[in-house]
Structures are given as C-alpha cells and as structure tokens.
Design goal:
By secondary structure, the chain is of the alpha/beta class. The protein contains six helices and six strands; from the N terminus they run ββαβαβαβαβαα.
C-alpha cells in the first residue's frame, strides 16, 4: 500500500483482490506486509488474503519478539520473515525454535557472507534445541501413558472389591481411590509440562 520512500503506492488497496490475481497468474506463495507505521500494513490484510486464496502466506514485517510469531500464527500466516542484520544471534536462534514449535516456516533474509555464517550457526543451534525439546516431550508423554494405564488398572481393582466384606471393601476402596487420584494428578501435571 505504501513505502517510506514513495509514500502511498496504491490508493485503492484491496489485498484479497490482488491476492486472487496473483494466484490466477500462477503464484506459488504470497507475501503480505503487516508493518503499520512505514508501510501502512495490517494483520487484517493477512487474514483477508489467507481467506481469499489457497496459497501459503508469509507475514512480511520486522520480526523482533516472540509475540510477533504468535500474532502471525493467530492471523493464519504460514511463514515469517527473519532479517539477520537486525537480530542478535540468541534472538535469531530463539525465533527459529519458536517458529518450528508454532508450525511456521521461516524466511531468513541475509545480505553478506557474515550474515550467512551467522544464520547457519543459529539454525544448527536451533535444530539441536528443537531435537532436545522433542525428545523431552516424548519421554513425558510415555510417562503420562504409563500413569494412565496404572490408573486404569487401579480403577479395575476398585470394581473387583464388590465381593468383599463391607469394612474390608470400604478401607480398600478409600486407599485405591486416593492412589487413583494421585496418579491422575501426576499424569495431568506431566501433560501440562509437555505442552510448554
């Protein structure tokens, strides 16, 4: 719609219509500017384009913080732009990791040999971190399943106490009920941890 150097480029700006024309012309993906101050973009434009076409959509903006990725994902973006020149190495790594977790592709913009090396290093670090997180998540989910199976066995034992004396049955039911609740609480806690 606009640029800092040229001002208003398209006065009658219709993102969905433009996106449909691009798709009809054979485009394989779309880039939507969402930066407000300099380019007069909007996340609403991205939502409209996503609804109007079947193409993957890149959010083109100055991606600097984690919340920018959450915004992009919530708006329906398929990918985000990471400009190496404006990101510290640790931030680049963190954003690469988070983009993977959120299911977003990352278009990494580089201009120099040094930026290329920086992006390669941080991408490798991000991949190692992602593998560690996924390994931890797999372990947690296995433990959750074990806890659920144990809870199921204990509930079966609860039903099997029906033929015992009333005092014996009430004591055993109370003990088993407490253990079932503890196991369910443990499984729930591990599920919450696996989602972080």
């Amino acid at each position: 719609k606009a640029s800092p150097s040229r001002g208003i480029i398209c006065a009658e700006y219709d993102p969905p219509a433009i996106a449909r024309r691009y798709q009809q012309a054979g485009a394989r993906a779309l880039s939507v500017l969402t930066e407000r101050e300099f380019f007069l973009g909007s996340l609403d434009h991205l939502r409209e384009v996503k609804a109007a076409t079947t193409l993957p959509v890149l959010r083109k903006d100055f991606t600097l913080e984690d919340y920018h990725l959450y915004e992009a994902a919530a708006a329906g973006a398929d990918a985000i732009l990471l400009i190496v020149a404006i990101l510290q190495p640790a931030t680049l790594k963190r954003l690469l990791c988070l983009s993977h977790i959120l299911g977003l592709g990352a278009l990494v913009e580089i201009h120099t040999r040094e930026e290329l090396q920086k992006s390669r290093e941080q991408n490798l670090d991000a991949q190692r971190s992602i593998m560690q997180l996924e390994g931890k998540n797999d372990e947690l989910m296995k433990e959750v399943n074990v806890q659920r199976q144990r809870a199921g066995h204990l509930q079966q034992q609860l039903s099997d106490t029906s033929n015992r004396s009333s005092d014996e049955r009430s004591n055993e039911v109370r003990d088993l009920h407490q253990e079932v609740q503890q196991l369910k609480a443990a499984a729930l806690t591990q599920e919450e941890q696996s989602g972080k």
